[in-house]
Amino acid sequence: MELGRRMRPLLLLALSLPVAAAPLEIVRPVISDSDGGAVLPPSFEHLPGETLFFSCRVGGYQKTPDEKIHLAYTIEAADPKGVPLMEPFHQEIVDEVTPQDKNWMPKIQTEVMVPPLAGSGTYKITVTVEDLVAKAKTESSTPFLVRGRDVAPSDTLTVRNFQFFRSEDDTQPVEKAAYRPGDGVWTRFDITGFQYGPKNKIDVSYLTSVITDSGKVLWTQPQPAVEQTESFYPKRYVSASMGITLQKNIPTGTYTIAVEVKDAVGNQTYETKQTFTVE
Known about the structure:
The protein has one helix at residues 2-16, and strands at 25-32, 45-46, 51-59, 68-78, 89-96, 107-113, 121-131, 136-146, 158-165, 178-179, 184-192, 202-212, 217-220, 225-229, 238-245, 253-263, 268-278. The strands form four sheets. Strands 10, 12, 13, 14, 16 and 17 form a six-stranded mixed beta sheet that branches. A five-stranded mixed beta sheet has the order 2-8-7-4-5, with no helix packed on it. A three-stranded antiparallel beta sheet has the order 1-3-6, with no helix packed on it. The longest helix has 15 residues, at 2-16. The protein has two domains: 21-146, Immunoglobulin-like; 158-278, Immunoglobulin-like (Sandwich), CATH 2.60.40.3880. With 279 residues, the chain is mainly beta. It starts with a helix and ends with a strand. It has one helix and 17 strands. Mean pLDDT is 92; it is low at 1-7 and 9-19.
């Protein structure tokens, strides 16, 4: 009996201690390829130009005496180098949560578009949530993979990945740039190393010509092809192409395609020459 009397005050003291509130947290982040679609695994590779549907839940929030919650959140997305893909998305959640809804967790969702010329790597979506009632803040990042087309960067204007094709729709370049009279000659190449203006503006143009082995110009584009755009996410390169049909009476020999590139924003010029043969 004496032991029981000594233990009772300790038990009453333990029961009177307040229960610690759960910390504010972001849980159940989900990425899918459609609104309400199946959850994609972390190993899934997204492609440039795709739209991702992202959502998550918020737990551990606090309520006002009149059962109200007030959350503010920001969603950001960035490439592997930390360059933002989009403007930050801000929103607030103000709602009433009754005791019957004690397990309810607010849902955060948005759409994120992978840039059309995105490179390969691990990107991430970052969510920051602030509980304005509890004066608490938390952050969580969700990575996702992108399998893009990689073009090596350059500090100055240049042309990369110059390739010959047999038709406009071919996906595989020719192993040897050799053609016959009457054939179509198609080329594709990438322009990079240009400078950016305000709002990531670019102003790039290129002019292609076909030159004989003796230096005579057989053909030149009537007008330069021009790429003048602005974008939130900086365009990494410009995809370019040209195509001609060889005359049926063209002499055999070696010919040159000359490409003159201009960067109006950076006041740069660059020229490359690539040869093909007519057999």
